[in-house]
Amino acid sequence: MAERQAGPGVAPSTRPQWATGPPGRTSLVRRLQEQAPNSTQVIGFLTFVVSGAILLLLTGLTLTGAVMALIFFGPIILLSSPIWVPAVFVMFVATVVVLSACGLGVAVLAGSSWLYRYFMGRHPMGSDRVDYARSRIADTATHVKDYAREYSGYLKSRVKDAAPGA
Hints:
mainly alpha; flat
C-alpha cells in the first residue's frame, strides 16, 4: 500500500479513516469525547449509586427484622391478645381525649386572645367583618322595629273598626 502523500508542510495523517471521518463531519469518537461527563458529574453519580445501595441494604435488613419479629413474637402476641386489645382500646380513647382537650384549649385561647384585642381596639384580623355584621344586624333590628310600630298602628285601627265601643 502506498502512503498518501501530504502537501508541503503538512504531516501525513496517522489516525485511521474511521476516527477522522469524511471531511466536514465530526466523527463518532470525537462526539463521544465532547459529551463525556466531567469529574464532578462522575463523583455525583457514584455518590448516588452508593447511597442507593446503602438504602436498599437497610430496607432489606428492616424488612427481614420485621418478618423475624413476627415469626418469633406472633404466638406470644396471639396468646396475650385478650389483655392487649382492651389495653390498646383504653390507650386510644385516652389519647383522643387528651388531644381533643388540647385542641379545644388552643382554640379557646386563640379566640379569647382575638376578643381581647378586638375589645381593646387593636383591630385584629377579621374585625372589619365583625363590625360590618354588627351594623347589618343593628340596621335589620331597626327596620323590624319600625315595621312593627307601623303594623301595630294598623292593627289598633282595625280593632277600633271591629269594636267601635271598645
